[in-house]
Design goal:
The complex is a heterodimer of chains A (279) and B (316). The longest helix of chain A has 18 residues, at 120-137. Chain A is an alpha/beta fold and 279 residues long. In chain A, β10 and β11 (219-220) form a beta hairpin. Chain A contains 9 helices and 12 strands. Chain A has helices at 21-27, 47-56, 78-91, 120-137, 159-170, 178-188, 192-198, 229-242, 258-272; strands spanning 12-15, 34-37, 61-64, 96-99, 102-105, 108-114, 141-144, 173-177, 204-210, 213-214, 219-220, 246-250. Chain B folds into 2 domains: 12-176, no CATH class; 183-315, Outer Surface Protein A, domain 3, CATH 3.90.930.50. Chain B has 12 helices and 6 strands. In chain B, a hairpin with a 2-residue loop joins β4 and β5. In chain B, α4 (112-118) packs across α5 and α6 (148-155) runs antiparallel to α7. Classes of the chains: A alpha/beta (279), B alpha+beta (316). At the A-B interface, α2, β5, β6 and α4 of A face α1, α2, α3 and α7 of B.
C-alpha cells in the first residue's frame, strides 16, 4: 500500500537544525531529505532564509509547523497561512505538516502542543478548520499525532479514533509519530498496538521518530538522545502496515554533531528494509 | 576599526519537543513573586465547551510557577484525567513547566551575555517577569524577546547601575537578533561608487543595509560581550559612553565599535543626509584637526564601511 495522496516516499530524512547549517552546506552529506520547522523561517527575511534557500536547492524539503493551532477556538490566522504557503512555494516543499492539537487561545500563543478533548464538538471544529487550511494551501495537510501528558475528562473517543475520524472527514494526510504513540501509551496506559490498529495507513505520508526521556512516572517527548529500541520496533510495525512512507528523525535538544544525529537516523533503514535473503 | 563576528549559537532548537525540566526550586523567603498574567475572557465554571476548556487550560498554564496553580487538585480532577502513576494535577503541571521553560529557553538564546551578567537565577526571574508581562501572541518565537531592553529600563527591580548596564546589554543582544532576521540587499561595491559623477559627491546619499543597527550606550557593552564570547568571565563594567554598529554581511553578523566622530558621520549617512553634510559634521566634531586630516580620516572610514557592506545603494 502507498498513500492515497500520491506523495513520494522520500526515504530517511533528518530535521534540519541551525547548528548543522554550515556542515550541510560544506560537506553536502548524503541525506535523503530535510524537514524544517516552518515558524523558524517565517517572520524573517535574513540569515535563516539564506541557509534554507541554499539547502532547498540541494535537498527535498518538507515543512513541519508548530503554530497552526488547528484545534484552537480562535479564528484561523490567515496571515500565518499566507506566509506558510509562500514558504512552501519558496522551498518547493513536498508537503506541509502540523500537529493535531491547539497551541493558544484568546490571542495568546503558548508555543506548546496542547491536548484536545476528544469530543464530537472538537471533531467537527477541527475537521472544518483542516478543510479551510487545505483550501488555502491547495494541497493536503499532514496532521501529526501529538505526545500528551494528560487527557481531558468527558472524552467520547480515544486519540486514535479521533485522529482517524479527522483524517477521513477532512480528507487530510497523517504524519504518524511513533515516538509520540509510545510516549502517550506509557503516559496514559494503553497498548501502542491498539493505536496502530486504528490508523488509516493509506493516509500516512510520513513517520517521525525521536528520543524521549523516561522519568519513571511519565515520559517526556524531549527529542534528546538516540531513538529507543521500543520506538524503532514500533516504526517497523507501522512501516510495514503503511507499505512504505518517508521517515524522519527529530533531535532538538543537546543536539550532537551532524554525523551522530544522521547515523542514528540511518538506523531507520535497518528497521524498514526487509531482511536480506539467506545466502 | 576592529570588528568582531558573532557566532550564532542556538542552544535550544525551537521545535516540537517538550522541554525536559523539573519543577523550579522553591523561592527563597522574601524574594518577590512574579505577577500573574491573565486572560480577560473567562471560562464558565461548569462549561465543558471546547472554548471554555481551552481558556481554563491556558489560564492555568500561564500562571507563574511561583504562584499556586490556577487549577487546583479539585478543578484539575474535574476537567482532566489521572494517569497510571500521576494525578490529573501532576499531569497538568508538566504542561505548566513546559510553557515557562520553553519561553525561558528562547530568551536564553536571545540574551546569553545578559544571563551571564546577571547570573542564572536572577536572569530566570527576569524572564519569568517578562513572560508574565508580555505573553507571546504570534506564531513565531523569533521576536518574542523584542521588549526586553525596554522592560529592563522601566521595570527591572535592581540597583540603577546594574539596570542601566543590563538595558544596554540587552539592546546590543537584541540588535544581533534583529540583524539576523532583517532583509539585506547586495552591498554597494566600489564599482557602484565609481558611477557617482564627479560633481555629485557632495549631494550623494547612501542607503544603509536594512540589516544594520547603530547603537549608543552608557556602558562599554560590546567589550563585555566580546569578553563573554571569549569565555573571559568579565565583570560588569563601570559606566562609559560607547557606540557600536551591528550589521550582517551574507550570513555573518558583525559588531564594530565606533568613536564619537565616526558615529556622527555614520548616523548622518544612515539617516539619509548627503555625504557633503556628513563631512561637514565630521569637520565640526574634529575641529582640532586640519581639513585635510579630517578628509583623510573620513575617506578611510567611508572606504571601510563600503568594503564591509554597510551600504547597498548610492543615490544622487
Amino acid at each position: 500500500m502507498t498513500n492515497r495522496f500520491g506523495l513520494p516516499n522520500l526515504g530517511v530524512g533528518l530535521g534540519l537544525r541551525s547548528v548543522h547549517y554550515a556542515h550541510v552546506l560544506r560537506e553536502r552529506p548524503a541525506v535523503d531529505w530535510f524537514e524544517v520547522l516552518s515558524e523558524n523561517y517565517m517572520q524573517t527575511a535574513g540569515r535563516p532564509l539564506h541557509f534554507l534557500d541554499a539547502i532547498a536547492d540541494r535537498y527535498p524539503i518538507v515543512l513541519h509547523g508548530v503554530s497552526l493551532s488547528i484545534g484552537s477556538t480562535d479564528p484561523l490566522d490567515r496571515a500565518y497561512l499566507g506566509e506558510l504557503r509562500a514558504l512552501r512555494d519558496r522551498t518547493r516543499a513536498r508537503w506541509v505538516s502540523d500537529h493535531l492539537c491547539w497551541t493558544g487561545v484568546a490571542g495568546r500563543n503558548t508555543h506548546d502542543l496542547l491536548p484536545l478533548p476528544y469530543t464530537e464538538e472538537a471533531l467537527r471544529h477541527v475537521v472544518a478548520r483542516v478543510r479551510a487550511v487545505q483550501d488555502v494551501l491547495g494541497a493536503p495537510l499532514a496532521l501529526e499525532n501529538p505526545s500528551t501528558y494528560v487527557e481531558h475528562a468527558g472524552a467520547s473517543m480515544r486519540e486514535w479514533e479521533f485522529l482517524a475520524r479527522v483524517a477521513e472527514d477532512a480528507d487530510c494526510a497523517i504524519l504518524l509519530d511513533v515516538n509520540n504513540v509510545f510516549v502517550s501509551a506509557c503516559n496514559h496506559g494503553f497498548d501502542p498496538a491498539t493505536y496502530l490498529a486504528a490508523v488509516p495507513f493509506d493516509r500516512v505520508v510520513q513517520f517521525h521518530v525521536a528520543g524521549h526521556t523516561d522519568h519513571g512516572t511519565h515520559i517526556i517527548d524531549s527529542h534528546i538522545g538516540p531513538v529507543s529500541d521500543d520506538v524503532w520496533r514500533l516504526l517497523g510495525q507501522a512501516y510495514r502496515k503503511s507499505g512504505g512512507a518517508s521517515v524522519l528523525m527529530e533531535w532538538d535538544a543537546e543536539i550532537p554533531s551532524f554525523e551522530v544525529a544522521h547515523a542514528d537516523a540511518l538506523r531507520a533503514k535497518e528497521v524498514i528494509l526487509p531482511p536480506s535473503p539467506p545466502s | 576599526m576592529k570588528r568582531h563576528a558573532v557566532e550564532i549559537e542556538t542552544l535550544h532548537e525551537r521545535a516540537s519537543a517538550t522541554p525536559d525540566r523539573q519543577a523550579p526550586a522553591p523561592r527563597p523567603p522574601g524574594r518577590p513573586g512574579v505577577p500573574a498574567s491573565s486572560i480577560a475572557e473567562k471560562a464558565g465554571d461548569d462549561d465543558a465547551s471546547l472554548r471554555s476548556r481551552q481558556l481554563r487550560f491556558a489560564q492555568g498554564l500561564m500562571t507563574p510557577e511561583s504562584s499556586p496553580g490556577f487549577l487546583d487538585a479539585t478543578i484539575a480532577a474535574k476537567w482532566l484525567t489521572a494517569g497510571p502513576r500521576m494525578t490529573a494535577l501532576e499531569r497538568f503541571e508538566i504542561y505548566r513547566r513546559g510553557y515557562h521553560s520553553r519561553l525561558i529557553e528562547c530568551l536564553v538564546d536571545d540574551y546569553p551575555a545578559t544571563q551571564h551578567a546577571l547570573g542564572e537565577p536572577a536572569f530566570e526571574d527576569l524572564c519569568r517577569a517578562y513572560i508574565a508581562r508580555f505573553p507571546s501572541t504570534g506564531p513565531s518565537l523569533n521576536y518574542f524577546g523584542r521588549g526586553m531592553s525596554g522592560f529592563v529600563r522601566e521595570g527591572m527591580p535592581e540597583p540603577f547601575s546594574v539596570r542601566a548596564f543590563t538595558a544596554d546589554l540587552t539592546s546590543l543582544e537584541w540588535a544581533i537578533v534583529e540583524v539576523i532576521h532583517a532583509a539585506s540587499d547586495p552591498p554597494l561595491t566600489s564599482d557602484g561608487l565609481l558611477r557617482v559623477p564627479a560633481d555629485g559627491w557632495a549631494t550623494v546619499r547612501l542607503d544603509a543595509t536594512p540589516a544594520l543597527r547603530l547603537l549608543r550606550f552608557s556602558h562599554p557593552v560590546n567589550d563585555y560581550f566580546r569578553a563573554f564570547r571569549a569565555d573571559e568571565s568579565p565583570a560588569i563594567p563601570e559606566p562609559a559612553a560607547s557606540a557600536t554598529v551591528v550589521y550582517r554581511s551574507g550570513p555573518t553578523i558583525w559588531r564594530m565599535d565606533l568613536t564619537d566622530p565616526m558615529v556622527g558621520v555614520l548616523s548622518a549617512l544612515v539617516g539619509g543626509e548627503p555625504l557633503g553634510e556628513a563631512l561637514a559634521r565630521a569637520e565640526a566634531s574634529m575641529s582640532d584637526l586640519g581639513e585635510d586630516e579630517v578628509a583623510l580620516r573620513v575617506t578611510t572610514w567611508f572606504r571601510e564601511w563600503v568594503g564591509h557592506g554597510l551600504f547597498v545603494r548610492a543615490r544622487w
